Amino acid sequence: MAEYLSEEEQMNRIRSWWADNGRLLMIGAVVIAALLLGWKLLRDQAIQTSEASTAALDQYLAADEEAQVQQAQAIATEFAGTTAHALVAMHQAGLSAKNGDLQNAEDLLQSAVDAADGSLLEDLAQIRLAKIQVGLDNGDEALATLNKVRREG
Questions:
Q1: Which residues have a Cβ under 8 Å from the Cβ of 139 and sit 6 or more positions away?
Q2: Which of 60, 126, 135, 71 is nearest to 101 (CA)?
Q3: Helices (DSSP H) in the chain: which residue ranges?
Q4: Terminal Cα-to-Cα distance of the chain (whole angstroms)
Q5: What is the pLDDT of residue 153?
Q6: DSSP state of 97
Q7: Handedness of CA 103, 147, 57, 52 (dihedral sign)
Q8: What pLDDT shows up at residue 69?
Q9: Residue 30 φ/ψ, nearest 5 degrees
Q10: Which of 38-46's residues contact partners 24+ apart within 8 Å by CB, and which partners?
Q11: CA pair distance 58, 36, nearest whole angstrom
């Protein structure tokens, strides 16, 4: 028996393999292409949202206090759950606390905690929230809030 196959035998084996596996190979290629396209679209959308929220945060910081209130509401609505939302809520809470409205500051800081879910900002917002809760004579709540801080330091 010959060690090497003739050209015709090789072609017959390739045709046979393609008949058995060609459809599965094509389906796999289409699925992989669709996954790559979907991943790219999601990544591009995330980048656009990040850039837009950063621009909104810049506008917020450049505005005067009266305009900041309106922009803060727009950021909370349009970019809910983003870092920009958390930062704006924390800033607004600081202004409320400075003006003596601790209840509003507590609500804003809770919003910041929710928006900063899982990030270092969440811990910072938790600590500030606990301070406000102490100011509202809610010591037990403040301790419970501090127990939610995940990172050391």
A1: 133
A2: 135
A3: 7-62, 65-78, 83-98, 102-115, 120-135, 139-147
A4: 76
A5: 66
A6: H
A7: negative
A8: 87
A9: -65, -40
A10: none
A11: 33
